[in-house]
Amino acid sequence: MAEKIGWQGRFYEDFEVGDVYPHQIGRTLLSCDNSWFTLLMGAPSPVHFDHHYAAQTEFGKPLVNSVLTLATVMGQSVSDLSQNVFGNLGWDEIRLPAPVFEGDTIYSQSEVLEKRLSKSRESVGIVRVSTTGFNQDGVVVITFRRTIMLYRRGYQPKLPRPKLETTVKSKG
């Protein structure tokens, strides 16, 4: 049986300015996600986890923590953009044009804006993208720009690939 290596992500050379990547996996944000994330980050605003309190606001229900929205959309982009990341250099121009509510499903896509080789590291290049997150109704809920330092092909660290034994040993 031949071993077939799965998706290993894009390298710097794989990106072209103008490329658009629709990120394939959506994520429904649940009440437990929102409460857990809000409390984990130590920012316990009741609008995120107190349904009685949130019902008294103009929204009438809990808002999803905006940092959870950012983390979700950024995470959706990893397999397309930064699986071979050397490091994130920054997030800029983060905008939240519409609220996200518990039960909303978030989808996203990214467009390549710029790319260049690193001036200080031969092994990497720098790619700048614009990412948009939208809900199940197509309403844009977040936009941001991200600058990523990515490995060039052949310079990435090697993942360990242990050989599995393919035969079954009997006990007797």
Automatic annotation (TrEMBL):
Pfam families cross-referenced by the UniProt entry: MC_hydratase
GO MF annotations, alphabetized: lyase activity
Designated name of the protein: MaoC domain protein dehydratase
CDD domains reported in the protein's UniProt record: FkbR2
Coiled-coil annotated spans: none
InterPro entries associated with the record: HotDog_dom_sf, MC_hydratase, MCH/BMMD
Organism field: Ancylobacter novellus (strain ATCC 8093 / DSM 506 / JCM 20403 / CCM 1077 / IAM 12100 / NBRC 12443 / NCIMB 10456)
